[in-house]
Amino acid sequence: MTEPKLSPNSANVDQEQFLTILSREEALARFEAALFPRDLTADDLALADAMGLVLANDVVAVVDVPPFDRSNVDGFAVRSADLVAAGEALPVRLLLNDEVIACGTAPQLPVKQGTATPIATGGPIPRGADAVVMVEHTQPAGSGAIEIRRATSPGQFVSYAGSDIACGEVLLRSGTLIGSREIGMLAASGVARVSVVKKPRVTIISTGDELVQPGQALRPAAIFDTNGAIVTAAVSENGGEAHFLGAFPDDEDKLEHVMREALATSDMLILSGGTSKGEGDVSHRIVARLGEPGIIAHGVALKPGKPLCLAVCDGTPVVILPGFPTSAMFTFHDMIVPVLRRLAGLPPRNDARVTAKVPVRIASELGRTEFVMVALVEGDGGLIAYPTGKGSGAITSFAQADGFLKIDALAEQMPAGTQAEVTLFTPHVRVPDLVIVGSHCTGLDLVTEPLARAGLSVRSISVGSLGGLSAARRGECDLAPIHLLDEKTDTYNTPFLVEGLELVPGYRRMQGIVFRAGDKRFESLNAEDAVRAALKDPSCLMVNRNQGAGTRILIDRLLGEARPDGYWNQPRSHNAVAAAVAQNRADWGMTIAPVAHAAGLGFMPFAEEHYDFALVTARKQRPAVRAFLDALASAEVQKALERAGFRPA
Amino acid sequence: MTEPKLSPNSANVDQEQFLTILSREEALARFEAALFPRDLTADDLALADAMGLVLANDVVAVVDVPPFDRSNVDGFAVRSADLVAAGEALPVRLLLNDEVIACGTAPQLPVKQGTATPIATGGPIPRGADAVVMVEHTQPAGSGAIEIRRATSPGQFVSYAGSDIACGEVLLRSGTLIGSREIGMLAASGVARVSVVKKPRVTIISTGDELVQPGQALRPAAIFDTNGAIVTAAVSENGGEAHFLGAFPDDEDKLEHVMREALATSDMLILSGGTSKGEGDVSHRIVARLGEPGIIAHGVALKPGKPLCLAVCDGTPVVILPGFPTSAMFTFHDMIVPVLRRLAGLPPRNDARVTAKVPVRIASELGRTEFVMVALVEGDGGLIAYPTGKGSGAITSFAQADGFLKIDALAEQMPAGTQAEVTLFTPHVRVPDLVIVGSHCTGLDLVTEPLARAGLSVRSISVGSLGGLSAARRGECDLAPIHLLDEKTDTYNTPFLVEGLELVPGYRRMQGIVFRAGDKRFESLNAEDAVRAALKDPSCLMVNRNQGAGTRILIDRLLGEARPDGYWNQPRSHNAVAAAVAQNRADWGMTIAPVAHAAGLGFMPFAEEHYDFALVTARKQRPAVRAFLDALASAEVQKALERAGFRPA
């Protein structure tokens, strides 16, 4: 991600790319073939430190567990033959031997015919005894004797030596992941140290002049380094010992130095950014000369993730992930995790799968296996898979997805209504308690806050007002937030409701004209006058909104027939408008008051918009819906909305 | 687990116990009511250190992601209005502005009408531009100009500011478990530190005079402390910061001192052992005086786990787990984990469930909710749930189970054939590749070793030869190891096969008489003479085997009509016989050569037993079965068997 490919032969570059692009399966197979089989390094660790690691060898039990025949109850060790004739009418009297077998004390006296020895739960059975009678089934019978009125079978209440774990048996196999249960078995057998596969040391490097680490100040045109943190965390989650070196600018000499140093001490090297084949991308040029055999695959017929680069440098895997977060994470999970887990001695990940209906058509590119991140909600007829489609540049596309579905390389689309197999990112589907699909607003977060506090999970999928209405009609959500002005009747929302939906009044959002504070052209004007002034100034650039947005209707009213410069800049959110003005990409635009204030912009109020909720009547009685309605009506939420700049309906 | 309850009023104690026993649900409800709601302590941590922890507060995005309108491709930032008329026949020529917008560099020049600015993927859109044209869709057109032959729509290849994450929106809710995906969202928003719920500090203490830590020498009558290690590990797995103090003898003063010290610095205190109400059990007496309200439940109608003790001492939960490992772990997971997770701010565990058929009748005690640990295998008609029934004293009952099923307090049994709901210990069912049900032998581990090395999972369920044959007939396993002598024909195994089963010859195990090395009574005798000598010596104690064991048939042959002392001591395994002789609980018995040698005992060979495999013919072609047969026939395995003291069939 640096300078664009502006060479005159870019068509050739493109051609070359196309020719060398491998299928996903072929790329992974070549990568694995260049790395495996290989010997894994083992480490000798104390048992408590072995949690989450993998056994490097079979562990054979060297003791019996229990180590001796053991009593399972508090009672008396007896010879069962002495009690063969015992019954209610025929008590048998046994003399007590002069010892009490507690836990941890070895018996000293044999149990001879006609005798018994008191024994505690866990105590070793003494010589001569072959059963235990519970204390509750005995009566004292004078000094040093007991009476028993029931027969007992040989072995009663005795756990024999080795009945839990037998000396000589293989307790755990090489390759077993050590969790608490394995620790229990090893401890029971007296194993204090185990040989485990050493965690592969994985060094992570971000590259790109534009990257700033979280917590630092974001200079203009820079972005926070997302991949560094998320790849580091995902390496840890998949058995690697992750070392993140930070983000480095695209300086070929310096970067090569850092990479060679890292390679010397790493079992795997992961870079992100710099994978396109443009002239400015230095990482892959460096990787090509780091060792043999070098680059295995550069370009994979995979979406997201086409620019992925896989290399093996003198035995060490080196990977360059795409720079965009969802591409980076998806290719990491799909192509790198299998290799990382093998290096860590872990079994392949066993991803859970569910079937879900795709509610909308998904277009796909021919010739590439395409993976679409989806969020799952419960529909009337089963699970629904909503594409979380903000694109591969968005971290939330990946982070807020429950899983992904696959569109074959030979398909151009997945039609609406398809029952698709969804591979889950986590073992369980956690269907949210409340599903809200429609137009998002930061005020909505204030309404759902009490639900979250009460442990109810809320999923909000942002598809705009009209998309929300469609989802509500199809029964795919509980509520659809909408703010649609019907121009004929000049009323909000109500005219758009259909059978089965009812309106829940939400709150009002003040729309107005924003400008940079200090811009003399707009100061002390009202909205109408400001727009008039802007239209007269040819250097004054506007930012519009997308067709179909409630705000766009208001802008068009103000503009009339005018199409000023910037009219075709049509972002899709209040925040994007505020950012365009704040960052001088435009001089004025229309957004809502809370967003304008958060961005530190001047604001001229123009009209109030009704942000309401279309409620699916059939779902009205669901506890989470009731909780939502209660929260919306509560004084607490109303106050929070007012503080944030919204007005009660 | 100390001295038995031998007071004359033990009947009263029993009565008292019965009266105060709570149902599982009631006990847990009272325990939680005494602890919650409560404020959880928060910690401010660097993002990388927050993995696996839980957010203590909502996190609101304070920046837009991306922070500016961004190009998604390498190309040229343009005004879409300039290209409205562009087409193959009508190329539009745009003059290039004198800058290249790379990643991380802020544009300096506006894109005026009729111009374009080169821009890299990730670069900020300059003022005036509203779309990006891919470099592949342009041609150089003389110095400082390009030609474009297609129209472009506003917003093409642009990701608007805030389209991924909008400033002001709630990014993550309080209570969210932080994994790599959450780290990615936080990093993308520039969040470097987060407020997380502090891990509850849980102190674990084992009690009992009989306990020895793994790695130390096992003195007579002592056992290794299993609960200390497994509870410590399970606390870590469920969000606690575990501190294991070791095992302490039942010394009331010392133990109280340790417990009070631990309580002062802990958010939870867990003891194991010492929960019965007998006189020797000190832990519960100490807990009763550690703080208010004290003991909440002591005795729960739960099997395994009846002696569980739950207390709250001045706000801190104190738990005494039963001493037997499976009881301890089961009650920990069922009753303690819900509380521990709430203390850690974690959501309730979401256990996966499957339906499986129970192949055998399971008896149950009326009046107690009974939980039965089961191992799952694939049968012809779905999953089969085998009880891993070695009892609550066995760690393997719990550790080798896939999950558990529940028998209602009001049921006396679960009939064979019941379709039961099994709650899984891990999210997935991992059905083993090869299932072996029957008689176990350490030699079998040598045969399956190559399978394990090849990544095939083998489950071996030890139910004896006859149990294995039944399982094979029902199609619940691939192979049943058997060693059954038909006395009529004096042949092994073949007479026991039925339709659908075939015999795979295994190996031979030498049976013989064992005695302690140095026991002058047996030295230099053969097996028959040794038994004759033993029968003449009334001080000489034998150890027998259980009815139905192959070994028992041989013993009975040697003994004829004689019933010497020790005849009724009838353990169920080769190892238990060896342990009884080695530990002086008996003077002689019969076991197999490898076990005798491992125990360091003298051995007089008597007869060779045939350890073979009944193979389910219908499963013969399964890859894991073929791998087993190949392994059994391999020179490698045959050599390993010989080295271990077995003989080829």
From TrEMBL, chains A, B:
Where does the MoaB/Mog domain start and stop, copy by copy?
203-342
Tell me which InterPro entries the record gives.
Answer: MoaB/Mog-like_dom_sf, MoaB/Mog_dom, MoCF_biosynth_CS, MoeA-like, MoeA_C_domain_IV, MoeA_C_domain_IV_sf, MoeA_linker/N, MoeA_linker/N_sf
Query: Which biological processes are named by the entry's GO terms?
Result: Mo-molybdopterin cofactor biosynthetic process
- Is Nucleus tagged as a keyword? no
Per the UniProt entry, the Enzyme Commission number(s) are 2.10.1.1
Protein's UniProt keywords contain Transferase? yes
Per UniProt, the keywords (alphabetical) are: Magnesium, Metal-binding, Molybdenum, Molybdenum cofactor biosynthesis, Transferase
Pathway this chain belongs to: Cofactor biosynthesis; molybdopterin biosynthesis
Recorded GO MF terms: metal ion binding; molybdopterin molybdotransferase activity
> What's the top EC group for this one?
transferase
Q: Which cofactor does it need?
A: Mg(2+)
Reactions it catalyzes? adenylyl-molybdopterin + molybdate = Mo-molybdopterin + AMP + H(+)
Q: Which GO terms describe its cellular component?
A: cytoplasm
User: What does the record give as the function of this protein?
Assistant: Catalyzes the insertion of molybdate into adenylated molybdopterin with the concomitant release of AMP.
Please state which protein family the record places this protein in.
Belongs to the MoeA family.
Report the protein name in the record: Molybdopterin molybdenumtransferase
